Design the sequence.
C-alpha cells in the first residue's frame, strides 16, 4: 500500500506527499478532516478524517473553525487586540527576525551626500557601491522576512482558533512555509516594483524631453496609470500572506485565492465587503504608523534645527549630516525609536488581517475547505 498521498482542496490536487507531511499539515491546521485524500496508487477520494493514519479516532475533536461565522466591526477590532495581547511576546520574536537585519542594513548603507544646487549646474548624485556588510544584511533580511511573516500569521491564527502550541512548534511550522512565502513574496513585491519603476522611468523620459502641454498631459496620464495598477495589485494581493500561511494553496493558486476572497461579497453592504474592510484597516494602520513616526522624529528634528535661521544654514546642516562618517546621538535614538514603533505596530496589521481572512472566508462560503 502506497505511503504517498494526493490532497484535493477546492477541486485542485496537491501531491504526492508522504504520510508524515500530511500529519505536519494537520498539526499546522492546513489539513482538516473534511479535505479529500487518496493514496497515490488508488483513484478513490475519501475524506481525510476517515484515514486513521492521519486522524486517529482517539484524538480530541479539533477546535471550532473560526471562519464559521462572519464578524461585525466590533468583533474584528476586539479579536485583533485580543490576539495582539495574547501573542505579544511571540510577535516580537518573529518581528525581530527581520527588524534586526533591516536596521543593520540601514546603518551600513553608504552615505549619499546631497547635491550642490548653489552652482546652478545640473545636480548629479555620485555613484555608490554597496559594501559587503550591507549586502550580507540585505540577503539576511530577505531570508528572514518570509519566516517572520509566516510566524506572525501562525501566532495570530493559533490564538484566534484557541490552539495551544509551543513556540518551537510555531517556528518549525513557519520554517516549513519559508519556500512558499518567499516565492509568493518575490512575485508580489516584484509586481509592485515593476509597476512603480516602469511608469516612473517613463515619466522621467517624458520630462527629459522638455516642458510642453502634451508632455504634461502624458506625464499625468502615466502617473494615473501607475496609481491604477498599484491599486489593482493591492486588491489582488490583499490576503496573500494569510492564504500562504493558513491554507495548502501555493504560488499562483494562492494569489488567485487571495484575489477571489478580496473581490467576494460584491453585492453586500460596502463596509461588510472584504475588499473595503481590508482597504480601510490597512489605511488606518498606515496613517497610525505615519503619525507615530512623525511624532517620534519631530522632537529630534526640532532640536537639530532649533538654531537654524535661514535656508542656507539648513542646507549646510543637512550636507553635514549626509556626509558624516558616524551617526550622532540624536540620529541613533530617533532611528531606534522609529524601528521600535514599526516593530510594535506590525503585529496589529497581521492580527487584523488574519481575522479579516476568516471573515472573508465565511462571507464567501469558503468554510471547512
Sequence:
Amino acid at each position: 500500500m502506497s505511503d504517498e498521498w494526493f490532497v484535493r482542496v477546492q477541486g485542485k490536487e496537491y501531491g504526492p506527499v508522504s504520510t508524515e507531511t500530511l500529519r505536519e499539515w494537520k498539526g499546522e491546521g492546513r489539513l482538516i478532516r473534511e479535505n479529500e485524500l487518496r493514496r497515490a496508487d488508488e483513484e478513490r477520494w475519501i475524506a481525510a478524517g476517515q484515514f486513521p493514519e492521519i486522524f486517529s479516532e482517539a484524538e480530541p475533536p479539533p477546535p471550532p473553525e473560526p471562519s464559521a461565522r462572519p464578524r461585525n466591526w466590533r468583533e474584528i477590532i476586539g479579536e485583533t487586540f485580543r490576539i495582539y495581547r495574547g501573542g505579544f511576546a511571540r510577535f516580537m520574536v518573529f518581528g525581530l527576525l527581520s527588524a534586526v537585519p533591516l536596521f543593520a542594513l540601514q546603518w551600513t548603507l553608504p552615505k549619499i551626500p546631497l547635491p550642490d544646487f548653489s552652482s546652478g549646474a545640473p545636480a548629479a548624485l555620485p555613484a555608490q557601491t554597496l559594501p559587503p556588510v550591507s549586502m550580507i544584511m540585505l540577503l539576511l533580511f530577505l531570508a528572514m522576512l518570509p519566516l517572520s511573516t509566516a510566524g506572525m500569521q501562525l501566532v495570530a491564527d493559533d490564538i484566534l482558533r484557541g490552539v495551544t502550541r509551543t513556540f518551537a512548534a510555531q517556528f518549525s511550522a513557519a520554517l516549513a512555509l519559508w519556500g512558499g512565502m518567499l516565492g509568493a513574496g518575490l512575485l508580489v513585491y516584484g509586481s509592485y516594483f515593476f509597476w512603480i519603476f516602469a511608469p516612473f522611468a517613463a515619466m522621467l523620459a517624458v520630462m527629459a524631453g522638455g516642458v510642453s502641454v502634451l508632455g504634461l498631459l502624458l506625464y499625468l496620464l502615466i502617473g494615473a496609470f501607475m496609481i491604477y495598477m498599484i491599486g489593482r495589485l493591492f486588491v489582488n494581493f490583499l490576503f496573500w500572506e494569510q492564504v500562504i500561511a493558513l491554507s495548502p494553496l501555493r504560488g499562483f493558486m494562492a494569489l488567485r485565492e487571495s484575489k477571489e476572497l478580496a473581490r467576494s461579497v460584491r453585492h453586500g453592504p460596502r463596509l461588510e465587503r472584504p475588499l473595503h474592510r481590508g482597504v480601510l484597516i490597512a489605511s488606518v494602520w498606515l496613517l497610525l504608523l505615519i503619525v507615530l513616526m512623525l511624532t517620534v522624529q519631530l522632537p529630534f528634528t526640532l532640536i537639530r534645527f532649533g538654531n537654524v535661521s535661514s535656508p542656507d544654514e539648513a542646507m549646510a546642516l543637512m550636507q553635514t549630516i549626509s556626509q558624516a562618517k558616524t551617526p550622532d546621538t540624536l540620529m541613533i535614538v530617533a532611528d531606534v525609536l522609529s524601528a521600535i514603533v514599526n516593530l510594535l505596530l506590525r503585529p496589529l496589521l497581521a492580527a487584523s488581517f488574519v481575522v479579516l481572512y476568516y471573515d472573508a472566508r465565511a462571507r464567501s462560503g469558503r468554510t471547512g475547505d
